[in-house]
Hints:
Blueprint: H1 18-27, E1 31-37, E2 46-52, H2 70-83, E3 86-92, H3 94-100, H4 102-115, E4 123-127, E5 137-141, H5 149-172, H6 178-181, H7 187-196, H8 207-215
Parallel strand pairs: 1-4, 4-5
Antiparallel strand pairs: 1-2, 2-3
Amino acid sequence: MKPPKASAKIDRPFPTLMLELEARATWNGPVCGVDEAGRGPWAGPVSAAAVILNPDDLPPGIDDSKALTEKRRAALEPEIKARALAWGVGFASVEEIEELNILHATGLAMCRAIEALSIQPAIALVDGNYRFKLPCDVTTVVKGDSLSLSIAAASILAKTARDRLMVELDGQYPGYGFASHKGYNAPLHQQALKALGPCPAHRPSWAPIKALLAEA
């Protein structure tokens, strides 16, 4: 009998609290996870969230927001907020993105998210490899949203908060499809920009928007 074929699929790791437990032992204080949403879109603000989870009351199913459906993210958002020890969300506006650049605007949104926490963290686990200057010590975690439950929870809150705001902008500036593509590059977005030109929600320094403004 032939042995069964090995599966070509490689199971990815799921986030855990291991990094949080290690950080808490080192810094002897609360640990928050921090992540952002909206660094790449052509329109809308950038958002960030900070979450201090309760190890004894974890909502089941927390994962990297990109690995979850919109419906699942929407279901997890109130669960995370209800069970976490503390959570906060912050934004940096289109105007602030233009003034500071997207990297520093992201850091500003993260600062605002941490400042919104009801508990001051001793250390923040931040997704990525850039060490932002935040109101507490920082440890960067590459692919943190797939490794740390706190960062994964923050990724969900940042994403759902920004998506909700983009739906609101769709009502303010109809015709661009913000509710569907959330300001990212999409055929509908490209067509609307050609037909309508940019609106105040667009980021003027982004190459496609800058080119359209130059033609005007």
